[in-house]
Amino acid sequence: MTSGMPAQEQDRQPGREAEMRPAPDYMPVYPGSGRLKGKIVVITGGDSGIGRAVSILFAREGAKLAIAYKDEDEDARETARLVEAEGGEALLMAGDVGKKAFCERFVAAAVERFGRLDILINNAAEQYVREDIADIPEEGMERVFRTNIFGYVFMVQAAIEHLRRGGRIINTSSIVAYRGQPQLLDYAMTKGAIVALTRSLSARLADKGILVNAVAPGPIWTPLIPASFPADKVAEFGTDTPLGRPGQPAEVAPAYLFLACEDSRFMTGQTIHVDGGDYPSS
Question: Could you tell me which residues belong to the region Disordered (predicted)?
Answer without folding.
Answer: 1-27
